[in-house]
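Dear support,

I submitted the protein below through the web form. The confirmation email said the job was done, but the results page showed an empty box. After a refresh the structure appeared. I'm attaching both so you can tell me whether what I see now is the final result or a partial one.
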Amino acid sequence: MPAATHLGVDATIALLDASRAQVDARRQAADMLTVTEAAALGGTTEAVLRRWIATGRCLGLASATDRQDFAVPRWQFQADIWRALLKLPSALNTTSGWELLSFLESPTGALSGRTPRSAIEQGEVDRVLVIAAYDK
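What the results page shows now:
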């Protein structure tokens, strides 16, 4: 078997910087809310919303400079998505907002090129959860 190759420090830093740029760009999208706005929309307090983000119950993307400054996708408060978020962190084995958001917004062949988010919105929550559990 060939020896495993590993990225050097400089290459790893470059990959992390590129990922951070993607997160920052996504945080600026028109469908994102502040924690204050999201708490009002979700009918809760900022403290509760932050706990939900920490457990994966709510998607939140942290700022690179302030780990308590989150941008929150508005669409997750739709009833079907909100119900799916009860089980999705467990199915994917992560509470990372970026990982959950990436899963939900990435087209997949398992859904005929649709995103899991669109499949959930079309009533296929169970199918998406099976795919999520298989994908981890």
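Response: this is the final, complete result; the empty box was a page-load delay. The chain has a mean pLDDT of 89.
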